[in-house]
Amino acid sequence: MQRWYGTDEIPGDLGPTVVTLGNFDGVHRGHRAVLRRVVSEAGDRGALAVAVTFDPHPVAVLYPDRAPTLISSLGQRLDQLATLGLHATLVLEFTHEFATETPEEFVRGTFVEALHASAVVVGKDTRFGVRNSGDVATLRGLGTRYGFDVLALDDIGEGARWSSTQLRSDLTTGNVNHAALILGRPHEVSGTVVHGDHRGRELGFPTANLSAEPEGMVPADGVYAGWLLRRDLPGGDPDRMLPAAISIGTNPTFDGLARRVEGYVLDRTDLELYGEAISFQFVEHLRPTLRFDSVEALVGQMTEDVSRCRQILSAIVPS
């Protein structure tokens, strides 16, 4: 999938396209339904399938105090979009100036002049243009004027079941099971492995600590069963995807202050992961973060956590 960061990166000889637009935060199952239709419609028309997205999130620019926590970083979004058969994704920088474009100015400049759209596929609640003044009816009128078809899909993207809003709520409460149902895959948090306090190794459970600002929304504090994905290893490597007990929190037993995301690969003490790019994939929430009265009590609970993770993950084939 090609990645264009602005309309000036679109090839001048681009042929006809089928286009959709959206923030696609999380690239959940609702988004994927729209995107699959874009790809199939493009195939039927002999056109190229293109998604248009925005960075930063429009609310973060227009109403910073109301900006949602992003489920996925731009890089994660683009990686997920690349799995869906799209020819390209166009990333438009969302600025205050961009936000003043009328619906017609946006459609003419982006869909017509830049992308040569033969069709535009959207959810029925799509809004665009200054103050979100454009809707599906607006788009149909512009399609008649500029010569492209409009396909509006029902119940896609922002319904109660498959929505970014519900995803954020699930992750905020640690409900990673339901988040995975909406996503169609486990939620993922990515980063580089850095040195921590090395306390886990001393306790017999060496952990991989993510860098301070990982990519992807960090779920609620607690202990989770999940997977550690070593992103730099090839797909067939047996050590690429490893079962893990994942901890999020401040290590209150040791009076920690910094919130950390770290994971212990089950039954492995031989791994040296410092500097590696990894992702944690969250499968099931086991318990909240707790403060223990002694190190012995903590180790006993960690041993139980690992046993439960082993049981949960043994019945799952990682994606």
Description:
The chain has 319 residues and is of the alpha/beta class. 30% of the residues lie in helices and 25% in strands. The protein has helices at 29-45, 58-62, 74-81, 103-114, 136-146, 164-172, 176-183, 199-203, 295-314, and strands at residues 2-5, 17-21, 48-55, 88-93, 117-123, 149-153, 187-194, 208-210, 222-230, 241-249, 260-265, 277-287. Strands 1-4-3-2-5-6 form a 6-stranded parallel β-sheet, with helices on both faces. It has a 6-stranded antiparallel beta barrel with strand order 7-8-11-10-9-12. α4 (103-114) crosses α5 (136-146) and α6 packs antiparallel against α7. It is elongated. The two termini are 21 Å apart.
Give the tags.
319 residues, 12 strands, 9 helices, elongated, six-stranded parallel β-sheet, six-stranded antiparallel barrel, alpha/beta
Strand segment tally: 12
Written as H for each helix and E for each strand, in order along the chain, the element string is: EEHEHHEHEHEHHEHEEEEEH
Question: Strand sequence of the main sheet, in spatial order?
Answer: 1-4-3-2-5-6
* Overall helicity: 25-40%
Mean pLDDT, all residues: 93
Beta content comes to 25-35%
Structural shape: elongated
Poorly predicted regions are none
Number of helices: 9
Major β-sheet profile: 6 strands, parallel
**Distance separating the two termini:** 21 Å
User: For the CA atoms, what is the radius of gyration?
Assistant: 22 Å
